[in-house]
Automatic annotation (TrEMBL), chain A:
Function field: Part of the ABC transporter complex PstSACB involved in phosphate import. Responsible for energy coupling to the transport system.
SMART domains, per the entry: AAA (SM00382)
Glycoprotein recorded as keyword: no
Protein name in UniProt: Phosphate ABC transporter ATP-binding protein, PhoT family
Source domain of life: Bacteria
Automatic annotation (TrEMBL), chain B:
Annotated segments matching region Disordered: 1-24
Gene3D superfamilies cross-referenced by the UniProt entry: MetI-like (1.10.3720.10)
Alphabetized Pfam families for the sequence: BPD_transp_1
Domain ABC transmembrane type-1: 92-317
Subcellular location: Cell membrane
Spans through the membrane: 42-61, 100-121, 128-147, 178-198, 251-273, 298-321
Protein name: Phosphate transport system permease protein
One GO term (biological process): phosphate ion transport
Organism of origin: Thermomonospora echinospora
Functional summary from the UniProt entry: Part of the binding-protein-dependent transport system for phosphate; probably responsible for the translocation of the substrate across the membrane.
Domain of life: Bacteria
Automatic annotation (TrEMBL), chain C:
Record-level GO cellular component terms: plasma membrane
UniProt keyword DNA-binding, yes or no: no
Pfam families: BPD_transp_1
Subcellular localization(s) per the UniProt record: Cell membrane
Role of this protein: Part of the binding-protein-dependent transport system for phosphate; probably responsible for the translocation of the substrate across the membrane.
Biological process, per Gene Ontology: phosphate ion transmembrane transport
Domain of life: Bacteria
Domain ABC transmembrane type-1: 82-287
Protein name: Phosphate transport system permease protein PstA
Keyword vocabulary terms for this entry: Cell membrane, Membrane, Phosphate transport, Transmembrane, Transmembrane helix, Transport
Organism of this sequence: Thermomonospora echinospora
UniProt similarity note: Belongs to the binding-protein-dependent transport system permease family. CysTW subfamily.
Length: 258, 328, 299
């Protein structure tokens, strides 16, 4: 199921603004890769180039190559809709569909893909909610609006929604930044479980979180305001946090950073 | 002078800055005058609304008393006859029929336009294209009437004949004396006139759709249409309903264009391709010149009915918007 | 079959089903079509008004009235109607603009969330939906029938003012809400009374926006016909006193000329329509230019 992502020579722009510059890296399957770095260094931008969500912003464009196993996501005949079907995403702020019930939120992606049979939908919704560690909390109120849940529950609902369509890669952009510590812990546990099936990329501001949940860590930095963000290094998480190759990484991790 | 200071002191509740005695007191007086006139203007506005109802009722009642027929069920409009006989049944039917037909035609197109400008048109062109649609609202109804009477109606003549030839098995399209000055022509012109208001309100609603939800749908692998169906339309539903209702209000009250296009004929008929038909508003414009004392009262009575209907429709639309604001 | 299956396994990306793609394409075409459908009548109306109107729109048309002419005569003009329309709309603005701006000021600066303010806000909305013919009937009942006044341009202006006021209130409200609160607070901190702050700090800041709104509102009421039929009546001669006797106006001029079977009259109707549209478009254009001027200032 899970796929390897190979990025080479990737640039992203917002109109005339060069947001990230020349990024190359490999994201391993069935593992968690964390992106860390100061605010504004392009972590979110980079993450969104991996499922072609970057280009939905007016004026935004991407150069370079992103290979999902053996297929270039930016190939000329590739439909971004198909890309997003296999590369799922969880956003910084929980964003369940406000007009839909909990059940319909989870089933939304399935219905797009032609799953119509009630029994099959029921089964996948239950499996996904269980997968997102939310089933026990919501099983009695599946028909209630998703917006009525707490922030942490909403975020897990969004994870359930994303995994319901069984993507090959799961991108998470600071999924815990809007949550309390207990919900954060619940989601970290969940990530640890999910990595047996998915390729997971998580952006985080929280160094401890990166250290706790990830197998590999990529550090991004920016030379100054207005300059494009760059990948400084990517390595095993243990190595990045104990013995990074780059001085900038060490400075950032030990907090000696502006 | 003393009275000025009095006013100043009496109203000094906030107690902010007592620095310059005299200047402050004239300031206070100015504040009083200004605040009262601002408030007064608002009250005047409310008073006008009330006065509209009061004066219309006051002039309508004598005419209704003199009426020999049932005002609500009578189809004829002969208030100048002795004894006066008049009722709004036909007028109300024509008003509702033409407005609902207009709404039926305008709403899907207007929503399509709003979608086009918000989600399909190139970003750089979007506002210009929106302005183009708004221009439809800048054209006065008298000009639509002129266009309808001397150009569009003659085209609708052929359309009407075609529909009548091939679809007369649909009751609406049946009947004879098909022509260009029909309820259908009036409805199409009304639809054109209410397009811009429905589409501009719908566009505003679409602007409020949270980007986060649009992105959520896209990230699930939804196509553009699926994204709209998932995140945009459900969110905008109540807004679109109230936009349509405001459009309906416009159509119900539209006078001149309809009065020019319709060739008045009496009697209720569901054959919308037929020359003729009438509406409350058009009847007022058309019969006013010949109306005597009772005739004017009768027209005012029919105007009162129109006022009440549009009031209900508009208040309903606003209430939906207001309730929506509380939730979102 | 098996070849296809193998190919599917090789490819990482699933195909988007033909049905989904079809639906997407179909909706896209429908949405484009909706836009075109709206533009056709616009183009048709403007085209007809310009081409038919040009046949008669000349200096004579603008400078002569219909005095002494019958509808089958060639020539004649809409001067009396233009004079009437400008006077009526001028009077309308004189009444509706101050009332509208003051109401807007009340709602934003004084009303807060009070009950009165909420009621007024609601009825301003409702008032925008009053049919023009109803406003006309109201002034008929109130001004002509109850108070006993005669037909006059002013009576028409009263009805138009009712239609214009809510638009001015809305424009004022929106513009005042855009004025940053810091500006008000800075002024209060200097000990400037509230009314001076509003008149000399807040309103000037919002001025261009309000003027834009007023111009659009004027353009809107300028084409209103129904109330004028009831309240101003009609005359073929120039009546430059809007307070006494029937007056001409462009909309009623079009109404009567268009309803006349003589082709000469219908020509005049088109020319008057072109005149009216030109004035309205000028106002609209002016308002847009003004709105554009404002943008860099308020960032
Ligand atoms: N929608 C946008 N339009 C223009 N510039 C943007 C947009 N989003 C982000 N940027 C710019 O791109 C750079 C990278 O932003 P982002 O990817 O959000 O950084 P991070 O997630 O690491 O904080 C920043 O300089 C930011 O200002
Ligand atoms: Mg970010």
């Amino acid at each position: 199921m899970a796929k390897r992502i190979e990025i080479s020579g990737l640039h992203a722009y917002y109109g005339a603004v060069h947001a990230i510059e020349d990024i190359s890296m490999t994201v391993e399957p069935r593992s968690v890769t964390a992106f860390i770095g100061p605010s504004g260094c392009g972590k979110s931008t980079f993450l969104r180039t991996l499922n072609r969500m970057h280009e939905v912003i007016p004026g935004a464009r991407v150069e370079g190559k992103v290979m999902l196993d053996d297929e270039d996501l930016y190939g000329s005949d590739v439909d971004p809709v198909a890309v997003r079907r296999v590369v799922g995403m969880v956003f910084q702020r929980p964003n369940p569909f406000p007009t839909m019930s909990i059940y319909d939120n989870v089933a939304a992606g399935l219905k797009l893909n032609g799953v119509r049979r009630k029994s099959q939908l029921d089964e996948i919704v239950e499996r996904s909610l269980k997968g997102a560690n939310l089933w026990n909390e919501v099983k009695d109120r599946l028909s209630r609006p998703g917006a009525g849940l707490s922030g942490g529950q909403q975020q897990r609902l969004c994870i359930a929604r994303a995994i319901a369509v069984q993507p090959q890669v799961l991108l998470m952009d600071e999924p815990c930044s809007a949550l309390d510590p207990i919900s954060t812990l619940a989601i970290e546990d969940l990530i640890a479980e999910l990595k047996s099936q998915y390729t997971i990329v998580i952006v985080t501001h929280n160094m401890q979180q990166a250290a706790r949940v990830s197998d590999r860590t990529a550090f991004f930095n920016i030379a100054g305001t207005g300059k494009p963000g760059k990948l400084i290094e990517i390595d095993d998480t243990s190595k990045i946090f104990t013995n990074p190759s780059e001085k900038a990484t060490e400075d950032y991790i030990t907090g000696r950073f502006g | 002078m003393t009275s000025e200071i009095d006013v100043g002191q009496r109203t000094d509740t906030a107690g902010n800055g007592r620095a310059g005695g005299r200047r402050m007191s004239t300031g206070r007086l100015g504040d009083q005058i200004f605040a009262h006139s601002a408030r007064g203007s608002g009250v005047v506005l409310l008073a006008i609304m009330a006065a509209i109802a009061v004066f219309l009722i006051w002039r309508a009642v004598p005419a209704l008393r003199a009426n020999e027929a049932n005002f609500l069920t009578e189809q004829e409009w002969n208030p100048n006859a002795t004894p006066p006989v008049f009722g709004i049944a036909q007028l109300a039917f024509g008003t509702l029929m033409s407005s609902f037909l207009a709404l039926l035609m305008a709403t899907p197109v207007a929503i399509g336009i709003a979608l086009f400008i918000s989600f399909y048109a190139p970003r750089r062109l979007a506002s210009g294209l929106g302005y183009l649609v708004d221009l439809l609202a800048a054209v006065p109804s008298i000009v639509y009437g002129l266009w309808g009477l001397h150009y569009f109606g003659t085209k609708m003549d052929d359309v009407g004949r075609f529909l009548n030839d091939y679809f007369s098995w649909i009751p609406l399209f049946g009947g004879d004396s098909v022509g260009g000055r029909s309820l259908l022509t009036a409805s199409v012109i009304l639809a054109i006139m209410i397009l811009p208001i429905i589409s501009s309100i719908t566009r505003e609603v679409f602007l409020q759709v949270p980007t986060a939800n649009v992105e959520a749908a896209l990230a699930l692998g939804a196509t553009r249409w699926e994204t709209i169906r998932m995140a945009v339309l459900p969110f905008g539903r109540s807004g679109m309903i109230s936009a349509a209702m405001l459009g309906l209000g416009r159509a119900l009250g539209e006078t001149i264009a309809v009065a020019m296009v319709l060739s008045t004929a009496s009697g209720i008929s569901i054959h919308i391709l037929k020359d003729g038909g009438n509406t409350i508003a058009a009847n007022i414009a058309n019969s006013f010149a010949e109306a005597g004392e009772t005739g004017r009262g009768a027209l005012i009575a029919s105007g009162l009915v129109l006022f009440v209907i549009t009031l209900i429709v508009n208040m309903g639309a606003r209430a939906i918007v207001a309730r929506r604001k509380e939730f979102v | 079959m098996s070849v296809k299956g193998a190919e599917l396994e090789l490819k990482s990306l699933p195909r988007v089903s033909a049905r989904r793609r079809m639906a997407d394409r179909t909706v896209q075409s429908l949405v484009y079509a909706a836009f075109v459908i709206a533009i056709i009548p616009l183009v048709s109306v403007l085209w007809m008004v310009v081409t038919r109107g040009m046949e008669r729109l000349d200096l004579d048309f603008l400078t002569f009235s219909m005095n002494g002419l019958s509808s089958s005569d060639e020539g004649g003009g809409a001067n009396h109607a233009i004079v009437g329309t400008l006077q009526q709309v001028g009077l309308t603005a004189v009444m509706a603009v101050p009332l509208g701006i003051l109401t807007g000021v009340y709602l934003v600066e004084y009303g807060g969330n009070s009950r009165l303010a909420r009621v007024i806000t609601f009825f301003v909305d409702v008032m925008t939906g009053i049919p023009s013919i109803v406003a006309g009937l109201f002034i008929l009942a109130f001004w002509l029938l109850a108070l006993g006044f005669e037909y006059s341009g002013f009576a028409g202006a009263l009805a138009l003012a009712i239609l214009m006021m809510p638009t001015v209130v809305r424009a004022t409200e929106e513009m005042l809400k855009l004025v940053p609160n810091d500006l008000r607070e800075a002024s209060y901190a200097l000990g400037v009374p509230r009314w001076r702050t509003i008149c000399f700090v807040v309103l000037p800041t919002a001025l261009t926006g309000i003027v834009t709104g007023v111009m659009l509102a004027v353009a809107r009421v300028m084409g209103e016909t129904a109330p004028l039929l009831l309240l101003v009546f009609i005359t073929d001669a120039i009546n430059s006193n809007p307070f006494e006797g029937p007056q001409g106006s462009l909309p009623t001029f079009i109404w009567y000329q268009a309803g006349d079977p003589n082709p000469q009259a219908i020509e005049r109707a088109w020319a008057a329509a072109l005149t009216l549209i030109l004035i309205i478009m000028l106002l609209n254009l002016g308002a847009r230019l003004l709105a554009r001027l404002r943008k860099p200032v308020s960032r």
